[in-house]
Amino acid sequence: MSTVVEKPKSIPEHCPGTQSDNAGRASACAGCPNQQICSTGPKTPDAGIQLVKDRLEQVRYKILILSGKGGVGKSTVTALLTRTLASQDPERNVAVLDIDICGPSQPRVLGVLDEQVHQSGSGWSPVYVEDNLSVMSIGFLLSSPDDAVIWRGPKKNGMIRQFLSEVDWGKLDYLLMDTPPGRSHWSHYCDNTTSRALLDVRKEIDFCKKVKVDVLGVIENMSVFACPCCQRLSEIFPATTGGAKQMCKELDVPFLGSLPLDPRIARCCDEGKDFVTALPNTPAVKALNDIVTKLVETCERKLNK
Asked: Which intervals carry biased composition (Basic and acidic residues) (predicted)?
């Protein structure tokens, strides 16, 4: 006996997906015309999830960079971590996946804005920044960097799934993913396949704990201002409540470190230059090296448990 279920007419942007256990019950489902259909319809396995797992099987560590809102430097932090991971060990294969669909910035930040991706029988080939550093972004698929990508719901989620399942990364040590603000865009296809590094957002930590994924640590971005002339550090926004370090203590998550705001680093990122070799003795690069060392130690410790 088979059951016929009416096809949903429209899907909200933050839809958890019809295969989710929360289909029709999540807060995003309130007011949706398909709420009852989703909550009562049969759940069938999503073939896309298995495709993602198969493709990422050769990736040792998969790390999402998250924030609960935009404008906190998530894309810059992703590029900083990726560059530093690759520069610390030439034998370490590192890649970044830019799944911030509506605001892809990794091609510019990593200095490969004019490159193009190629497709073969094994999938899309990422663009190589260095011998051990590659990147994939929707920015490579646009005719112009100024083109706006106005995608919502299923189309945006479908593009993310395609990136996760069709890019031929080869064998990787680290894959860092630059995500859009919010959570529903990635949780369906990355559930139980990744660990996460987070910026200073309590809701994101709470969300990761609820869906039972690892929190590798918190990075406090733009914590102080580093003068480009004298390199003196100035506290612009005093941490009256203890800052990220106190928050990590309260929530029992690792604190990886603080990154100062340095205009020279920002300029390098805008121009696509390698800040690690251009500014090796700056406070920001020194802090980055410490953060990445802790991140690598945390990843290896979790793998060996």
From this structure: 1-12
Binding-site residue ranges for [4Fe-4S] cluster: 15, 29, 32, 38, 227, 230
Q: What is the pLDDT at residue 79?
A: 93
Give how far Cα 135 sits from Cα of 105, 220, 250, 261, Å.
11, 24, 35, 24
Q: Give the tens place of pLDDT for each residue, 195-225.
A: 556 554 677 788 778 777 788 999 988 888 9
Give 23-43 pLDDT, tens digit per residue: 777 777 777 766 776 766 555
DSSP H helix total and E strand total for the chain: 11, 11
Give the architecture (CATH level 2) of 48-303.
3-Layer(aba) Sandwich (3.40)
Distance separating alpha carbons of residues 120 and 221, to the nearest angstrom: 38
Sorted by where each begins, the domain ranges of the chain are: 13-44, 48-303
Q: Which residues are annotated as a binding site?
A: 15, 29, 32, 38, 68-75, 227, 230
Binding annotation for ATP: 68-75
- Phi-psi category of 9—alpha, beta or left, where left has phi over 0 and alpha has psi -120 to 50? alpha
What is the reported pLDDT for 255? Answer: 92
From residue 5, alpha-carbon distances to 39, 82, 142 in Å are: 11, 45, 37
First to last CA, the chain: 46
145 touches 112 (CB < 8 A): no
Q: Which of 88, 74, 66, 69 is nearest to 288 (CA)?
A: 88
